[in-house]
Design brief:
The protein is built from four helices and seven strands, in the order ββββββααβαα. It is α/β, with parallel strands linked by helices. The strands form two sheets. Strands 3-4-5-6-7 form a five-stranded mixed beta sheet. It has a two-stranded antiparallel ribbon with strand order 1-2. Strand 3 and strand 4 form a beta hairpin. The radius of gyration is 16 Å and the shape is globular. The relative contact order is 0.15.
């Protein structure tokens, strides 16, 4: 969504609508860490190997619904999932407020498996890929 002024260029206000509470805490452009790239997608960020094409409309990352409460980090891909340590490094580069709310969303069986999740948990120092449930 852009704000347009008379006789002026439009300014980007938000990339998601309705605008989630975490909108301004995530990067607007792809971020590369080692051999991975985190791309902005409607639900949050999607991780892919560097040198591969970003998510398109037919990819799983484009079908993960956005939550206004928590950003999501979508992990998967056509091949083997990325190394858990590289995913943890991407997470550590995000602001603390995002890291504590981030929901890890695996889109492949391998990324959802106990071995990958366990390695990610050991590497990231996090016990669960899910944030605590919001209090009512």
């Amino acid at each position: 969504m852009a704000a347009v002024r008379p006789a002026g260029a439009g300014d980007l206000v938000t990339t998601r609508f309705p605008m989630p509470s975490w909108e301004y805490l995530l990067p607007y452009a792809p971020v590369q860490v080692a051999d991975l790239v985190a791309d902005p997608v409607p639900a949050g960020l999607s991780v892919r190997p560097a040198g591969t094409a970003p998510s398109g409309p037919s990819d799983a990352a484009s079908h993960v619904p956005m939550s206004g409460a928590v950003p999501k980090l979508i992990v998967g891909g056509a091949d083997a999932p990325p190394h858990p340590a590289a995913v943890a490094e991407i997470i550590m580069r995000l602001p603390l407020q995002v890291r504590t709310q981030l929901l890890l969303v695996p889109t492949t069986v391998a990324a959802a498996g106990h071995e990958w999740i366990g390695n990610w948990s050991d590497t990231s120092g996090t016990r669960s890929p899910c944030p605590p449930a919001p209090s009512s």
